[in-house]
Amino acid sequence: MGDFASLFVFIIVFPLVLSSFLKYQPGACVDGVHNLLRIDSTEDVTLPIQLRDVQILFYDIYNKTSCHEGRPNLKMPGYVKFIAGEMHVFRHIENFDQIDVQPTISFMHLFLCRGGISPVPMFPNRFCNFKLSKYIPEHYTDILRNQGVHTIGEMMTKSNFTEVLELPPSVSFFGVTLLRMIRDRYHSEVRMAIEEKPILHIKIPSDGGYFYVGY
After folding, report:
1. Considering the domain boundaries, does residue 175 fall inside one?
2. pLDDT along the chain (215 residues), means of 10
């Protein structure tokens, strides 16, 4: 390469490559930015329950921000922190404890859950079809079943709800954690219904992107 060509590469090409590298910053993990997961209801505004801009931060077991390639990363054990969001209930939900949860969880164009069924033998079907009341205590549902706008602040005032939730270690099979086996990037949608009548449909994350699990 001649002197002129070398100078061209140094002056023109190198700054472009450096600029691209600085913008990408694959290791960036700023608290409140790269570990932030947003959840929203889908465009179906006819459903009686709507989630609005729920914001959750991910942390590892040492309370360090948990990210991977600039996206939020779920770790178990670890912590999640609810910092914002509203739940709009447009009519009283009498049988709130009978809500069925059926998530659709996809990664690498494959599915861990689809239509309430797990097509993956190593992923328990109980994670794809369950009652909301199994994981949400009754004193929470007594609040959320009522018509109105519910916030994190309200839950903290009226119950023992805390915005920081500690996640337990992942279950293991033959010494290998389930989280390790399913480690990847994910997109999810969750449908909830009572007696097969839909009441809520949300996207995770709401920006149409993805979040990581297990990195």
Report:
1. yes
2. 40 37 62 97 94 97 96 95 96 93 86 88 86 89 95 91 90 73 88 95 93 91
- 2 within some domain: no
Question: In degrees rounded to 5, what are phi and psi of residue 189?
Answer: -130, 145
Domain count, the chain: 1
CB of 75 within 8 A of CB of 167?
A: yes
Run of H or E including 167? strand 164-167
Distance CA 106, CA 11 (A): 44
- Token pair for residue 2? 């001649």
> For residue 207, is it within any domain?
yes
Q: Which two tokens stand for residue 189?
A: 């949608």
Determine whether 200 is exposed, middle or buried from the number of CB atoms within 10 Å of its CB (0-12, 13-18, 19+).
buried
Of 111, 91, 92, 95, nearest to 103 (Cα)?
111
Bridge partners of 192, per DSSP, are 101, 200
| Cα–Cα dist 173/65, whole Å | 28
> Domain of 156?
25-212
Where residue 87 sits, what CATH number does that domain have? 2.70.220
